[in-house]
Amino acid sequence: MLSIDNILETNQMIHDNKLDVRTITMGISLLECASSSGKELCNRIYDRITKEAEHLVKTGEDIEREFGVPIINKRISVTPISLVAGGSDLRSYVPIAEALDRAAKTVGVNFIGGFSALVTKGETKADRILIDSIPEALATTDIVCSSVGVGSTKTGINMDAVRDMGIIVKKTADLTKDNDALGCAKLVIFCNPVEDNPFMAGAFFGVTEGDAANGGENTSMFYGMLVGGGVGLIAGVAIGIWLYLRMQRINSDIISQIDELTKDTNDSPML
């Protein structure tokens, strides 16, 4: 049950400890952007992201003002690019990374993730192209994040991919050495990646997800969910305070009755 200590602790976190929301991340599927033409693919990706995430930053800022809790980052995750670009005529996916970077900057988010490949068991031609593109892609973009899944509990670890990614990390560090090797900070190599991971730099939007989550035409729904959650929190706090005060009154009545019984017992001639 919610106690007055919980309420005071939450109030302290907001006012004294400067409680904030780390990030909101919008997932966007790019599967419909697939094209055999690399130029057309890049254009479709840019148009898709700028349309779906048009109101993401503004919605986040509106929520900040309404509830008084800052949202530090607004981010986007997209379908792993190796899946989207596999049918294109591109021999390097750096142009796609640049399109992602332009789109993310247009809508005003802090980061965009999904320049990714999943090679936990093996790799396709598209996976190979993407992995080879990572160093240059991270060196020529500002807010694009990349990730590669190299293993899972079920399949084990793809040691060929681990070896390749070691080389990629070194190349990325070398290409961004004049910027504190920042490219490596935008690259994640991991195992057991989940399909709705919102955390940079490993964020990507899984193929089992819908068209988009938390944005675009669904922004009003997203906003409504957050507002509803805020109203629920306020109502919960109010109910918690009422229950606390009610329990205090009950406890006071019980203590008074005990005091009366104790007094009667002490006055008894049998003792």
Question: How would you describe what is shown here?
Answer:
Mean pLDDT is 78; it is low at 215-225. This protein has 271 residues and is an alpha/beta fold. The protein is elongated and about 90 Å long. The protein is built from nine helices and seven strands, in the order αβααβααβαββααββα.
Short description:
The protein is an alpha/beta fold. Helices cover 52% and strands 15% of the residues.
Number of helices: 9
Order of helices and strands: HEHHEHHEHEEHHEEH
In total, how many beta strands?
7
What best-fitting shape do the alpha-carbon axes yield?
A: elongated
- Could you say what the CATH topology is called? Anaerobic Ribonucleotide-triphosphate Reductase Large Chain
Spans of at least 5 consecutive residues with low confidence: 215-225
Approximate strand percentage: 15-25%
Query: Given this structure, which CATH class is correct?
Result: Alpha Beta
Distance between the termini: 42 Å
Helix content: 40-55%
Alpha-carbon Rg, integer: 27 Å
The whole-number mean of residue pLDDT values reads: 78
Structural class by secondary-structure content? alpha/beta
